[in-house]
Task: structure prediction
Amino acid sequence: MNSRKGAVELSISTMVVIVLAITMLILGLALVKTIFSSASTSVETIDKKVQDQLNKLFTDESAVAVMLGSDKTAKIKQGTDNFGIAVGASTAQGDNIQSRDRLKYSLALDKVSNKNCVKTLGEAVVKAWFQQTLGQEISMDKYESNKAYARITLDISKGTSTCSQKIFVDVKDTQTNQMVGSDYFTVQILKSGLFG
Result:
C-alpha cells in the first residue's frame, strides 16, 4: 500500500517540476524576444513625446539631433519595412520657423570606411533602403517655434547581408542659406531571427 502512495507522490512532484520547467522556459523565451525586439527602436510618427526627446538632445555645439540613443545606431532586422529614425534641428539664431521649408536636411553615405555596407553591397543597394532621396535637400515634416522635425524612413529587404553603414545628416537654413549643423547615425543590418 505504501509503495503505491510513493509512486503517486513521485508522479505528482514530477508533473509539478515539468510544469514549472515549461513555465520558466516560456517566460525565458518571452524575455529574450523582448530584449531583441527592443534593440531596434523605430519611430512611427513625430509626436509630442518624440519632439520632447529630440529637444533634450540639442546641445550648445549642435543644433541637429538624431534620436537613437548614445551609440546612434539603428539596429534593423532583414525584412523590416517603414523603419523610422527621428531627426530634429533648430534655427541658429533661435528665430521662429514659419514653414516646413525653412530648414532642410540632406543625407549622405559614408564611403570612406572599408567595413561599411557601401563597400559590401554597393552604393545603389544602400541608397534603395531609404524612402528619401540621398544627396537632395528635403523639407522637414513638422515645425514648432524655432525647431523642425523629420522622420527618415528605411525599408530593408529580406536577404540583405548583415553590415553597418554610417549616414551623415546635414541641415541647412534656407532663409539665411547657412548650414545649421550636422549629425550622423549608423544603420546596422541584423539577421531576422527566430523571434521576429
Notes: The chain has two domains: 1-38, 42-190. The chain has a mean pLDDT of 85.
